[in-house]
Design goal:
The chain is 64% helix and 9% strand. The protein is mainly alpha-helical and 254 residues long. Strands 1-3-2 form a three-stranded antiparallel sheet. Helix 1 packs antiparallel against helix 2 and helix 6 (111-139) packs across helix 7. The longest helix has 35 residues, at 146-180. The protein is globular, with a radius of gyration of 21 Å. The protein starts with a helix and ends in a 16-residue tail after the last helix.
């Protein structure tokens, strides 16, 4: 088993090297995605594989934006989808435009994260609305309960994704500790934390350059929820599966 794992590590290292040195952007991205998929299929951590090259590759530095047209009226589900995306899918979202000229959602992040984010954004907007119409029809409730139900769906899915991520990482760290010792496990935790911080810094730097006049607006309005609708939404959110369309690309979609 150790020999097989080493062969896989060497294959992933070669893919990362190919991603770093290939002048063709499409082929670079393909090599990186293949490396990520191979690592995930074999429960390996890219942070432990050829870490120096992985940190220095241009692909990890490449941040881009995708402008998504929302029409003159954004979906009532959009804010809940946006919260899920920003909390769990390593992208930054900025709302632009107006009702008169049309609204847009600007999604910023690494190319692979943006591609996943676009799918999740579309899927969740449709799924949350579908769940609301189903709940409204079966329970004969008023539209005024919609916000409470949708917030419940968001909270249920948010809690599910947090629990899935924590469980996955705890299991992997314990496995590394058993196989390679305490020091290797600690190093993996540090590497993962560093990678997340670095990604966040690169995204924020990109946002500052693209939107130098961007201001954060905080809303302090308090919303009173209908508890029964929120509880029903929470139950539905806990069973949403994002796996369809994503394959096994992320442990967050269990």
């Amino acid at each position: 088993m150790e020999t097989i794992n080493q062969d896989i590590v060497e294959r992933i290292s070669k893919l990362l090297k190919l991603a770093e040195n290939n002048p063709n952007a499409g082929e670079r991205e393909k090599a990186l995605l293949l490396a990520k998929r191979l690592a995930q299929q074999n429960e390996l951590d890219l942070a432990q594989i050829d870490k120096e090259k992985w940190e220095n590759t241009n692909l990890r530095k490449e941040i881009l934006r995708e402008d998504i047209e929302l029409g003159k009226r954004a979906s009532v589900c959009q804010k809940y989808s946006s919260w899920i995306l920003m909390h769990h899918f390593n992208v930054k979202l900025i709302n632009t435009g107006s009702r008169r000229f049309g609204k847009e959602l600007v999604m910023i992040g690494r190319k692979s994260d943006v591609e996943i984010g676009k799918y999740v954004q579309s899927f969740l907007n449709n799924e949350i609305m579908r769940l609301w119409h189903e709940y409204k029809r079966l329970n004969n409730v008023r539209t005024v309960e919609r916000g409470s139900f949708m917030y419940g769906v968001y909270k249920g899915l948010d809690d599910k994704l947090k629990a899935s991520k924590d469980k996955f990482e705890a299991e992997k760290i314990n496995q590394i500790k058993e196989e390679r010792g305490e020091q290797a496990a600690t190093q993996t935790v540090n590497n993962l934390s560093l990678m997340r911080i670095t990604d966040g810094e690169r995204i924020n730097s990109f946002v500052s350059k693209e939107f130098p006049s961007l201001r954060s607006v905080r809303s302090y309005a308090r919303t009173t929820h209908v508890q029964s609708a929120m509880d029903a939404g929470y139950v539905k959110g806990k069973v949403i599966s994002l796996r369809r369309g994503l394959g096994n690309s992320s442990h967050l979609v269990e």
